[in-house]
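Re: that chain you flagged

S.,

Sorry for the slow reply, it's been a week of failed gels. I finally had a moment to sit down with the sequence you sent. For the record, here it is as I used it:
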Amino acid sequence: GLMHLHRAGKLTNRKGGHFDRVSVTTFAAGVPELYEWLHENDAVRFLPVRLVNSPELIAANRSMVTINGALAVDLAGQVIADTIGGAQFSGIGGHEDFVSGPGLSADGRSLICLPSSSIVGGQLVTRILPMLPAGSVVSTPRHQVDVIITEYGVAELAGRTIRERALALASIGHPDVRDELLAVATTWPKD
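Prediction finished late last night. Pasting the structure tokens below so you have them in one place:
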């Protein structure tokens, strides 16, 4: 994706600081075309993970917006990004770093994007959950989550009460389960 954005002229990388005018990464994986594009490309700089994932350095970027994925989120805003049913699915990587980094700055934003549902064994499974199942491992705690996005909308969570968060998250759930999520969310403590 980064390669295509560069080629389309959509990235200026005018962010100020030490890494102005370059895209910073710690690793790359993809098709041969990506490796050819990266070879001796001065617009991309590979740095150690301790720098790339440093919340303090992330926060130092002007108007920093980070985008993370997730496997599931509950109505409180707790995010699961690396486990499914308590079993390891992937590594945590810099998930929490790229959520907390923008929170350390005055104007940063952290977006967590996920589909509202998945089809598992021919059945629709919601990825916005009333509550996390037993054995779930929280990747990012609710108090650090800023914005959750699905194909059905945006839930702004920062600064909201628990009930407001639950209602916002239920409203971006899949239409087939949205009423059930809203019914649960309305039972949460009033503010």
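What I noticed first: Residues 70 and 165 are 17 Å apart (CA to CA).

Talk soon,
D.
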